[in-house]
Amino acid sequence: MAIIIDGKKISTEIKDELKEKVASLNKDITLCVIQVGSDPASTIYVNNKKKACEYIGIKSLSYELPNETTEEELIGLVEELNNQPNVNGILVQLPLPKHINEDKIIQTIAPHKDVDGFHPENVGRLSIGQKGFVSCTPAGIVQLLKRYNIPIEGKECVVVGRSNIVGKPIAMLMLRENATVTVCHSRTKDLKEITKRADILIVAIGKPKFITKEYVKEGAVVIDVGIHRNEDNKLCGDVDFDDVIEKVSAITPVPGGVGPMTIAMLMHNCVESGIA
Length: 276
Ligand SMILES: Nc1nc(=O)c2c([nH]1)NC[C@@H]1CN(c3ccc(C(=O)N[C@@H](CCC(=O)O)C(=O)O)cc3)C=[N+]21
Prior knowledge:
Mean pLDDT: 97
Distance between the termini: 44 Å
CATH architecture of the largest domain: 3-Layer(aba) Sandwich
Number of helices: 10
Radius of gyration: 19 Å
EC number: 1.5.1.5, 3.5.4.9
Structural class: alpha/beta
Subunit structure: Homodimer.
Largest sheet: 6 strands, parallel
Low-confidence stretches: none
Shape: globular
CATH superfamily of the largest domain: NAD(P)-binding Rossmann-like Domain
InterPro entries: Aminoacid_DH-like_N_sf, NAD(P)-bd_dom_sf, THF_DH/CycHdrlase, THF_DH/CycHdrlase_cat_dom, THF_DH/CycHdrlase_CS, THF_DH/CycHdrlase_NAD-bd_dom
Strand content: 15-25%
Bound molecules: 5,10-Methenyltetrahydrofolate
Binding site for NADP(+): 161-163, 227
GO molecular function: methenyltetrahydrofolate cyclohydrolase activity; methylenetetrahydrofolate dehydrogenase (NADP+) activity
Oligomer: single chain
Number of domains: 2
């Protein structure tokens, strides 16, 4: 029987640990969350982040900006928050409207307030093993594996997807944990042949139910980073859960897997920023 990895439960454990830490600090921690426009999915995620802050005892300040906000205006706000010593974390919810250059905004955030771990300085630090903020979804995946006592060292880890916010950083993190890492993407030939080698298969491609049992080795651990909402508001991941369940030894569900961990690790980064 496969283990269903309970991200909701582990995220609550982590949040409870953080709540205790914050209570013992005697110091305010403040996260600023900036959302441009009103994409409904973004609003759900932003609200989940604010709820988590409240639970842990972190102050959250919301900036809800209209879709027409210019790049200059957004840069101005980020710079203003960079300069406020009471602000510990700045999060600009992605995606941004097309007229705003995301890279430019991310690079404007002061690296020591970049609790998403998206700034090139933090990405660079991760890749050369220096301390810095680690991107929340990858950090959450490693926490899930560790807290379920799933060994990483020496394992064959295959990552499907090479985005800057998930694929690339999770590959770096698994490498740091001494896995043997292969990164696959849309131009990979014989994808199935490669994914079938994986002891740990991490999927972040953004295609609903793409990974079926033909892609998975018997007994593999499958981590599903995808999140898709269908017509009747039901969520599913990049992995066809019902199809692979008989074959895997452990798997993260959607919802209730990686998603809540992303938020728990964001809270972790905020607390780290507040302590520093
Ligand atoms: N600057 C920035 N930082 C992010 O961390 C960031 C972002 N932009 N843009 C979008 C993605 C996506 N993301 C999620 C967070 C929580 C859930 C989550 O809580 N998921 C729940 C379900 C929530 C629901 O009902 O939709 C679950 O999987 O159980 C999902 C996805 C953070 N992201």
